[in-house]
Amino acid sequence: MATDRLDTDRVDAAPAEGTEDLEAFRMRARAWLADNMPPLQETLTPHQLMLQDEMGTRARELQRILFDGGFAGLCFPKEYGGQGLTRAHQAAFTHESAPYEMPLVLNVPTFSILAPTLLDFGTEEQKRAHIPKIISGEEMWVQFLSEPSGGSDLASLVTRATRDGDVFILNGSKIWSSGAFRADYALCLARTEWHVPKHRGLTCFIVKIHQPGIEVQQIKMVNGSSEFCQEFFDDVAIPAENVVGEVNDGWTVATRLLYHERDAVGGGSPYTSGVFGGRGEHGSGRTDLIDLARATGRTGDSHVRQLVAESRANDLVGAQLISRVTKGISTGKFPGPAGSLHRLYAATNAERHQDIALELAGAGAGAWAEGDLAGEKGIEFLSRQSGSLGGGSNEMQRNIISERILGMPREYAADKDKPFDEVRHNASPSRPR
Ligand SMILES: Cc1cc2nc3c(=O)[nH]c(=O)nc-3n(C[C@H](O)[C@H](O)[C@H](O)COP(=O)(O)OP(=O)(O)OC[C@H]3O[C@@H](n4cnc5c(N)ncnc54)[C@H](O)[C@@H]3O)c2cc1C
Predict the structure, then answer these.
(1) What distance in Å separates the CA atoms of residue 344 and residue 41, rounded to the nearest whole number?
(2) In the structure, what pLDDT confidence band is assigned to residue 50 with cuts at 50, 70 and 90?
(3) 272 and 260 in contact (C-beta within 8 Å)?
(4) pLDDT of 33 over the 60 cut
(5) Residue range 134-187, pLDDT digits in tens
(6) How far, in Å, is the centroid of ligand 1 from the Cα of 157?
(7) Who's near 242: CB < 8 A, 6+ residues apart?
(8) Residue 153 CA: which ligand 1 atom is closest?
(9) Rounded to the nearest whole angstrom, what is the distance from the C-alpha of residue 265 to the centroid of ligand 1?
(10) No. of H helices and E strands in the chain?
(11) Are 318 and 307 spatial neighbours (Cβ–Cβ below 8 Å)?
């Protein structure tokens, strides 16, 4: 595997002969966007957009417009409905599209995590069946990885899939699946073999979400969002042809999925630029602090100016880090786990950004009138920690950096070589009745 080029590595290869010149593409995109995409409604912040239940339907409509115009799936291979362009074309398009309403909810995880994993490990039939529908906005995907018993030690999961002729029977529960209620398919990691060490008994499946035996419950969060879901599986029959990769080698698929996830959450995915699509200059998407300083009448305050400048500098460093690390990985100078570097930086920077926003907002973040920017920052602060957990916690990124990049000794694991059924672990939770 280490020496094989994966399908998604093509994105970083030299442009194929006949690839449209970057500046010509930029001009064509600029004109097309102006004629076809609705202008961004400035009153809707990314946070408000996240809360809109109907955003899934809207995103599918917008994606269809992009698809019909030949601007969808820019970095996806042509044979699966994409445009076969380079990372630079995607970055140019993202920059040009900043003033328009875009289907951002499809960025993560559908485009930047699940589709690339499917490209890397899916069979030809699986890719032909799903990638074109993903690119056209017909299919939305999510990931079923974390379980109520824990997410960091992913290989210890206890949702089981038992072979029964041509199908696997799935039982157990997944949790924290972002947007599962509005999605169509999931990549689900389940245990298929219990008598081997934990990493060697897992299999990755394509699971149709809305079918008999699967119950999806939305979880109401403190910020008012119901994005997160928990799913309960009750004897769900999954066709054996839905296995992605090899049976009992799901860890290889999961490792690659997590690579794409770190890239996506860290802002380095070639399939999008940044979680919210890289709004704003340099893909940082951060003009909100200046707006906030203006709204609170504090643009002349030297301390406020320093905080805004600090945040700006942090964003510029982040953009440079992404560029350096992604280039390093694509040229083989850095190992794949180096994605943890920009993933960790993005999470730490996002927390600092939230802290600065709260300081600028002051008391307005605690009590506000409808539509008040300071109040919006107060609500956003409630999910300050999300970036340091989604895609693997900061502590897990630090473990990866120390062990797999710096070559420090691996963390002790008592269960490493033990068959999973001899290791003490939680039972699979059942649906509350
Ligand atoms: C915004 C967001 C979106 C998400 N989307 C999805 C999704 O779509 N699908 C999905 O399956 N999951 C999703 N998750 C879940 C996410 O993957 C888990 O929250 C994450 O892996 C941590 O797992 P946990 O919450 O069970 O914490 P635990 O694993 O229980 O960890 C608890 C704490 O212990 C620390 N810890 C654990 N092990 C170690 C160790 N070995 N060394 C040092 N510290 C350690 C962790 O860092 C953490 O601080 C999402 C989470 C967030 C916040």
Answers:
(1) 31
(2) low
(3) no
(4) yes
(5) 999 999 999 999 999 988 999 999 999 999 999 999 999 999 999 999 999 999
(6) 13
(7) 126, 205, 206, 207
(8) 29
(9) 14
(10) 12, 8
(11) no
